[in-house]
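Budget justification, computational time. The allocation requested in the original proposal was used primarily to generate structure tokens for proteins on the priority list. As evidence of use, we reproduce two of the resulting records. The first is shown immediately below.
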Amino acid sequence: MKLLDRHYTVRSVDWADRYQRIRDALNVGPDGYVIHEAAEWHPYRREWLFFPRKISTEPFDEAVDERERGANTLIIASEDFSQIRTLEVGQRIPERGISSFKILPGHPNECVGLKSVEIGDRTESYLFCFNLDGEVLQDDIFIGDYKCEGLEIL
């Protein structure tokens, strides 16, 4: 992981142990993998939130990955990663994975997120809303035939 201070100095921090704890919580085993595109620090709960795009217990295979490895599992980790829990958010759609999410200002238990599809030349983006109890507040809304790389709330 990289840390950027207020003077724009970049410092590397080894998070291998933290990522291994996430892998263990997801039970992916030694051959599996987790692809992260979406992570947030929750300042009020003092927890790390990870919403992996892809989760697999099997070795990486691009064709299978594109069609079948989309995830709907939110990972909630304590500040020091000593406690990690997982939470299923809605129904898993195998070709869709989370590419970004943000905590809604003024609603610290609610989030808005993006799901992406990338299969060959086919790309799609969807918007959805959920809370940190795993409840879907707004089902997927199709945005367009392109991949939104991120979500920001201004």
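The second record produced under the same allocation is shown here.
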Amino acid sequence: MLAADKLLLTSTIRKNATELKGKELALHKGNFDAVGTQAAVLAGFAVVMVVEFHMPEEAHFALQGIYYVFAVITLVANLRCVAMTTCITVMGTGLALRGPDGSMVRAVEGMYKQRAIVFRSFGAGIVSCCLSVAVIAWIKMDAIPAAICTGAIAWTLFSIAKYTNFYMEFFKFNEDEVVSLDDILGADLVNKEAIVKQLGVGSDTLVRLLGSLTQTRREHTPDTDV
């Protein structure tokens, strides 16, 4: 009886811990989906910038070259971001749901660690897109309007960098204080002492409580004849 109660308790705790970890997995997946969607939109703009834009014949060759360089950087950076977010979400969720014991923790931690490189690629696409627009202003406009547009784009880039840094500092937290479920979801956890330590109650009390709940459930479950 005690062995069965212990196994049931362990399974219940690990099931609840897995559900909590699944919320974190869904959070990361939603974040990557949002970034990937925006990167796909910017990649579409970049294709139009490369293919559909008709370069004036009188445009300076240096400006033409700079424009196409930034346009291609916009395209490849955003396509790279789309590819990474797609692979991370597909493979990460697949590992979490179909992998061996402990795969949920591995998938969530792996997705968390990949955020920085994805955000850097997305940021590079935004910056290069703004610079492409600034070059277009000097190609299509006179000096004064082009200078005004360039100033507006420079202010936009400065504002993006400023508020990105502000938000990073504002939402920053200490990694050592993060709630971790690794000790519960670890493959080596099936001993009563570790469970009791996590719950902070006495071993005998816990087993008696679980036994009474199990007995009550059995008493209220009607027997059926086959």
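A brief technical remark on that second record: Residues 2-51 form the longest helix (50 residues).
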